[in-house]
Design a protein that fits this description.
seven-stranded parallel beta sheet; 300 residues; Inosose dehydratase; alpha/beta; 11 strands; 11 helices; 15% strand; two-stranded parallel sheet
Length: 300
């Protein structure tokens, strides 16, 4: 049971990989939701094993007293040729999340990404960073998408993310600088902050006023060092086990939780592991992580 003063949920990516499809691929929606209920948590994010029909999903969640908080939305807004089709798609996404009673849209630009950009070819090796003009085109597009989200009572929360063009500290800073604070918020992710070279606590303090959603994720630094020595890409890092749940890696969550609590954060935070569930049992890892975070809170 969540004893923290903000809303705590868990992402189905702990059970079923989104970018590494073989991770937990045989796991069913019912298994995931039953585990979440057993953990005493009442919020989740959309996952690929969940039913896409809103009525069916609402029924499955409702009988376990779980709420759909968000759903990831990839966008390709740095390319003006895709602007209108992307915004049309964003509107459909917002309509679905409004039907589900969600609060935020986890949003990430895929332009330039090695894995997520549909324009890339298999032989390429690196993320293509944005030019100055692409930055401004992206910011304009995100402001428009944020206005759509607001129409539906939602907030666009931008997910800085490994393997994308908004990954490193200066890229996060630039995105926040170029976008409208009333339309574009930040999804603060502890694991992706570390992965992208930021100190998670520094990032939290710097951009707290823009944060409307949180992912709590940890890092195994030795595995990350090994992966980088082998020049593994982002998906390769997931396969190697770079990510884990809070309390099982190197990030010190005590000051992070203290900062969130002291500032009165009352939005949702999702517990994330994103590792092979055949090796790291999702329920057990989540249970221990919850105990870890609650012990930090009790001693804060």
């Amino acid at each position: 049971m969540n004893k923290l003063p903000f809303q705590l949920g868990i992402h189905p990516i702990n059970w079923v990989g989104e970018d590494v499809k073989e991770h937990g691929d045989a796991t069913t929606c019912e298994q995931i939701l039953d585990d979440i209920q057993r953990l005493g948590l009442t919020g989740t994010e959309m996952g690929r094993k969940y039913p896409s029909d809103s009525d069916t999903l609402r029924e499955e969640l409702g009988k376990r007293n779980i709420r759909l908080v968000s759903q990831w939305k990839s966008v390709l807004l740095s390319d003006p040729a895709h602007r209108q089709s992307e915004l049309n798609s964003y509107r459909r996404h917002a309509e679905f999340l409004q039907l589900m009673g969600s609060t935020v849209i986890s949003t990430a630009e895929v332009g330039g990404s090695l894995h997520f950009d549909p324009r890339r070819t298999p032989h390429e090796k690196e993320v293509l960073r944005l030019s100055e003009s692409q930055w401004h085109i992206l910011a304009e597009g995100l402001n428009e998408a944020g206005a759509i989200a607001r129409e539906y009572g939602l907030k666009l929360t931008y997910h800085h993310h490994g393997g994308t063009v908004v990954e490193q500290p200066d890229e996060i800073d630039k995105l926040m600088e170029l976008t409208d604070p009333s339309l574009v918020y930040l999804l603060y992710d502890t694991g992706h902050a570390y992965y992208g070279g930021a100190d998670p606590l520094t990032l939290l303090r710097k951009h707290y006023d823009r944060i409307a959603y949180v992912h709590l994720k940890d890092i195994r630094p030795q595995v990350l060092d090994e992966a980088r020595a082998e020049q593994s890409d982002f998906v390769g890092c997931i396969r190697k086990g770079v990510f884990t749940v809070p309390g099982d890696g190197c990030i010190d969550f005590a000051p992070i939780l203290k900062e969130l609590i002291t500032r009165g954060y009352d939005g949702w935070a999702m517990l994330e592991g994103e590792q092979d569930p055949a090796i790291h049992n999702p329920y057990e890892y989540a249970r221990r992580s919850l105990q870890y975070m609650e012990s930090l809170y009790q001693h804060s």
